[in-house]
Request: fold
Amino acid sequence: MSAPLPGSVDDTLAMLGSAGYVGDRELATVLFLSLKMRRPLFLEGEAGVGKTEIAKVLAAALGRRLIRLQCYEGLDVAAAVYEWNYARQMMAIRLAEASGTGGNRDKLEADVFSERYLVKRPLLQALEPSPEGPPVLLIDELDRADEAFEAFLLEILSDFQVTVPELGTVKAAEPPIVILTSNRTREIHDALKRRCLYHWIDYPDAERERRIVAAKAPDAPVALTRQVVAFVQRLRGEDLFKAPGVAETLDWATALVELDAVSLDPAQVSDTLGVLLKYQDDLAKVRGLHLRHLLDDARMDVTTP
Ligand SMILES: Nc1ncnc2c1ncn2[C@@H]1O[C@H](COP(=O)(O)OP(=O)(O)OP(=O)(O)O)[C@@H](O)[C@H]1O
Ligand SMILES: [Mg+2]
Reply:
């Protein structure tokens, strides 16, 4: 069942909340505007801060189909837009030859280059009409694709149309709702950014992160959640190769609940640190001199209002 687009920033915030996403006003505003102005939304931020989740939540809340294009180095038109099913085409040709109907070459060619033999990939799927309204198109981790693909995407995001030479042009009657994400391993070109509204998703502050844990790991006791969040927030202030994202906070809270923890103690924190930090250098650094300090500081953050 599709739902109407939110009518205001407050509605947008409420819509995110009802789908379990704890957003802030800035995000709700840019999301509301991107829906209203029908402009793609370009989200950047560190890993695990909830970029991909926004597209999922949006599709669920609006009752739209979610179409995801995961980007990677070497991603090309065949994987992103369409390709012909050569195996089936060959089979059709062989069968036509064997049955003696292969003589009419024009007819055979038109037949094997018809929609039946077209494999539609995410970008083409996103241009087709859906009964519940335009889908949410998530173009995830665009920074991993190469620049040639980015240039191609620019074209699609301008016209929302694709030409299949053998078949003709497919144009979206209504453009899809487009969310692009990047972890900023490289800069995305200005030309593409210009077509989008932009939002940087930062790590949440402690209050918001507690609300995220309460929404996503509801089994964690309140006192434990406060300590977990305070500790992670302190950890992000350290000079680490890779600071923990919200995803790691959630994993850690869940792990500690599994271990029946009700509060943080140094030995348990040290034993479970691999849930938060995924680089040996970071682990060694924190386990070394720092851990007790960090824990004391985190406990202080919890007791001081
Ligand atoms: N504000 C939020 N409200 C609710 N859940 C959140 C929020 N932020 C992050 N999460 C949760 O954190 C996890 C990671 O989010 P997500 O995968 O969207 O991060 P990401 O920014 O796309 O990370 P990556 O860059 O690694 O792909 C998900 O399980 C998501 O539900
Ligand atoms: Mg992601």
Summary: Residues 82-115 form one domain. The chain has three domains: 9-75+121-201, 82-115, 206-300. The radius of gyration is 24 Å. Residues 18 and 93 are 53 Å apart (CA to CA).
